[in-house]
């Protein structure tokens, strides 16, 4: 026995609306004639779907005002106004944006006025809902570090409004992007993912699609890891570790663990490691040989690096050599030593070969450079008054000036605080604090130190503490002060 399939009410309605015009008159046509003002209106299509173009052709009086109202029977309406041409013709045209979810019979009215004449006509057409559609999500970077670029490929129906959200396990939204699918239905998302996290986070990627009342959702996943801390720098105030020898293999493991697959971090770590070993090689060179390589060797290696593995190898060699250099420093350096680098405009204090203080400083200006060589603090005075060794009228003259802590290491050259200075470091001995020059350019030969670090040195360094000034041209001692 064959079972007969029942027709749905929506299909019966659609068939009825489509067949009636062929039985009783022109397709989609509406006519009216009142007060001597005729109007004829007809639809271009008897049935349409969202996103399609509907047209209603109107023929009536020449140069008449015509208005159109369309009702989709779900609260949505379309209105248009125009003027017919000299032949009394006008064609309304619009893109259907029906957002309902059921087949409906849309009604339209055409109103005509010209002077005292007016008339109207009405008609209808079938409006189909938007068909269900799908959204697919492909997370192309499923494992990221904070700050890395998230890449997601989304595919759906052309023209769909798409929204992407990245959310954590408690629902906080870390990233939002909105766009429209292109002519092929594609959308490629590329955006950096920022967050403040301490532990690995498993995130959800949610993509929603909306088109003419239809809504759909797709999800993906990714893992976000905190960015590893970069290697500590000797110029960041970090005390040197009391480590021992480090094999190249062990250094490679350390370098890879520190970079954790992040190219930019591998690059940064390589530069930091080279900077650290360069400083230690230069300091060691002031007391003894035995440095693994010269600083030029590491600079040359770094300049050739291009890949992630290149930077890992450079980091590893610098770490391994630095461990050797630091072990040698602990053997040959005095119990306490103060190292002043003119090139870096920096001071480092070492105890038993380990750095215990780092600070930026300002040294002598080009005309009055700080003397280079090996010296020692020969007295400590607080407070202390400077008196200019240059006469009034000299461009180097300065009035009597008091400071808090004075630690001379050779003739008139010494270490001291400088209340008149707020800027220290590279360039301050040549260009001062910049174009407006609110502070003096360099010193008269002394080493100016920020106040808090001067206090630390005063308490830490006894008379007799070695002071080594290096990293600049050999300077013959002359007049100095302040």
List the main descriptive attributes of the protein structure presented here.
482 residues, alpha+beta, Immunoglobulin-like, 4 domains, five-stranded mixed sheet, disordered N terminus
Present the secondary structure layout.
Elements: H1 9-24, E1 29-34, E2 37-43, E3 47-48, E4 53-59, E5 65-71, E6 77-83, E7 89-95, E8 104-114, E9 117-127, E10 136-139, E11 143-145, E12 149-155, E13 161-167, E14 173-180, E15 186-192, E16 201-211, E17 214-225, H2 248-259, H3 263-285, H4 295-304, H5 308-332, E18 336-341, E19 346-351, E20 354-360, E21 373-376, E22 384-386, E23 401-403, E24 406-410, E25 413-417, E26 447-449, H6 451-460, E27 466-470
Parallel strand pairs: 3-9, 11-17, 18-27, 25-26
Antiparallel strand pairs: 1-2, 2-4, 4-7, 5-6, 5-8, 8-9, 10-12, 12-15, 13-14, 13-16, 16-17, 18-19, 19-20, 21-27, 22-23, 24-25
Helix pairs in contact: 2-3, 2-5, 3-4, 3-5, 4-5
Provide an overview of this structure.
The protein is an alpha+beta fold. It has four domains: 9-127, Immunoglobulin-like (Sandwich); 136-225, Macroglobulin (MG2) domain (Immunoglobulin-like, Sandwich), CATH 2.60.40; 234-332, no CATH class; 336-470, L,D-transpeptidase catalytic domain-like (Beta Barrel), CATH 2.40.440.10. The protein has six helices and 27 strands. It has helices at residues 9-24, 248-259, 263-285, 295-304, 308-332, 451-460; strands spanning 29-34, 37-43, 47-48, 53-59, 65-71, 77-83, 89-95, 104-114, 117-127, 136-139, 143-145, 149-155, 161-167, 173-180, 186-192, 201-211, 214-225, 336-341, 346-351, 354-360, 373-376, 384-386, 401-403, 406-410, 413-417, 447-449, 466-470. β24 (406-410) and β25 (413-417) form a beta hairpin. It is elongated. The model is unreliable at 1-27 and 236-240 (pLDDT under 50).
């Amino acid at each position: 026995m064959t079972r007969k399939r029942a027709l749905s009410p929506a299909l019966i309605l659609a068939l009825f609306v489509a067949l009636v015009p062929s039985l009783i008159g022109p397709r989609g046509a509406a006519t009216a004639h009142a007060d001597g003002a005729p109007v004829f209106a007809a639809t271009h299509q008897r049935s349409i779907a969202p996103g399609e173009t509907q047209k209603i052709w109107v023929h009536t009086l020449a140069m008449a005002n015509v208005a159109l109202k369309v009702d989709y029977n779900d609260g949505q309406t379309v209105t248009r106004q125009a003027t017919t041409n000299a032949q009394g013709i006008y064609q309304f045209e619009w893109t259907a944006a029906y957002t309902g979810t059921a087949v409906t019979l849309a009604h339209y009215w055409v109103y005509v006025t010209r002077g005292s004449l007016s008339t109207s006509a009405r008609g209808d057409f079938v409006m189909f809902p938007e068909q269900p559609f799908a959204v697919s999500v492909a997370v192309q970077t499923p494992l990221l570090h904070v700050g890395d670029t998230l890449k997601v490929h989304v595919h759906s129906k052309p023209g769909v409004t798409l929204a992407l959200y990245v959310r954590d396990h408690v629902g906080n939204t870390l990233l939002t992007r909105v766009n429209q699918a292109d002519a092929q239905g594609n959308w490629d998302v590329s955006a950096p993912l920022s967050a403040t996290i301490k532990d690995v986070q498993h995130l959800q990627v949610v993509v929603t699609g909306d088109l003419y009342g239809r809504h759909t959702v797709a999800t993906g996943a990714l893992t976000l890891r905190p960015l590893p801390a970069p290697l500590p720098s000797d110029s960041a105030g970090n005390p040197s570790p009391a480590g021992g020898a480090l094999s190249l293999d062990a250094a490679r493991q350390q370098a890879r663990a520190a970079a954790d697959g992040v190219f930019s971090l591998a690059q940064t770590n390589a530069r930091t490691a080279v900077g650290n070993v360069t400083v230690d090689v230069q300091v060691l060179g002031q007391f003894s040989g035995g440095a693994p390589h010269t600083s030029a060797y590491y600079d040359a290696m770094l300049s050739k690096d291009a890949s992630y593995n290149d930077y890992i190898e450079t980091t590893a060699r610098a770490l391994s050599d630095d461990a050797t250099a630091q072990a040698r420093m602990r053997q040959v350096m005095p119990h306490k030593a103060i190292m002043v680098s003119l090139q870096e405009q920096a001071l480092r204090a070492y105890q038993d070969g380990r750095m215990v203080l780092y600070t930026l400083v300002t040294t002598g200006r080009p005309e009055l450079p700080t003397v280079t060589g090996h010296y020692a603090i020969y007295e400590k005075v607080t407070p202390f008054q400077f008196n200019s060794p240059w006469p009034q009228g000299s461009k180097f003259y300065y009035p009597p000036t008091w400071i808090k802590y004075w630690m001379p290491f050779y003739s008139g050259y010494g270490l001291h605080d400088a209340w008149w200075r707020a800027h220290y470091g590279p360039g301050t001995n040549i260009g001062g604090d910049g174009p407006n020059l609110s502070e003096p350019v360099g010193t008269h030969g002394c080493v100016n130190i920020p106040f808090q670090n001067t206090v630390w040195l005063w308490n830490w360094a006894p008379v007799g503490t070695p002071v080594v000034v290096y990293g600049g041209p050999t300077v013959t001692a002359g007049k100095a002060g302040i």
